[in-house]
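[Automated response] Your request has been received and processed.

Submitted sequence:
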Amino acid sequence: MKSKFRLFLYVFIISLTSTQVFSQGKSSKKLLRHVVIFKFNDSSSAEDVQNVADTFYALKKSVPQIKDMEWGINNSPEQFNQGFTHCFIISFKSEKDLADYQNNPSHKAFQEVLKPHMEKVFVVDYWLK
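Generated structure:
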């Protein structure tokens, strides 16, 4: 009986320890998402818009705080996009990294490329749950 109790206690302690390690590892992978959705001017050509998208995506290589970046063009059949077409999702490890990105000279240069073509922008930041 004592050996069964010891075995149970051993398994219980191991499971608690592994749960703590797993949850600590999980919390360290928490990411801040920065979602940017653009509506472009009707006067901007397809080439202009593509140049803006390419320039924005290139920030992934020049801004070290960016952990990941993806983008796409709206193709929802629901037609609720109100003219917003291009969506970029950028991941950061911290709010400081996001602030550093926003102040980075490459990001400032991108804004100059964007300005003549942007009608509106919609931005949402959130922490992954």
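Summary generated for your ticket: The CA atoms of residues 74 and 112 lie 24 Å apart. Residues 4-27 have pLDDT under 50 and may be disordered.
If you did not submit this request, please reply to this message.
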